[in-house]
Amino acid sequence: MANCYFLLLVLLEYIPAVYTPGGPASMIMPLAFVILVSMVKDIIEDRSRYLSDQEENNRMTFASRRTQNQFREC
To answer: How many CA atoms lie within 13 A of 2 on its CB side?
Structure first.
């Protein structure tokens, strides 16, 4: 939602009646900051999820041998 808000402010800067002395550049910086923070947060979450998946996928388990009614570790 914050991204949409800052994008709307940037677009409003291009309307002459709404133009502020800072210009569009003053609104692009907060938008870029919010997007950067969101990207970093997503990278951290994805990395954590990847490591968790790797741990789960490499965990030892038992498989059944139907012919011998035994379990073997794999």
So the answer is: 10
Distance CA 4, CA 37 (A): 15
Span 32-41, pLDDT tens digits: 888 899 999 9
Q: Output the pTM of the full model.
A: 0.61
Q: Which positions ≥6 away from 18 have C-beta within 8 Å?
A: 12
DSSP string, 18-68: T--TTHHHHHHHHHHHHHHHHHHHHHHHHHHHHHHHHHHHT---EEEETTT
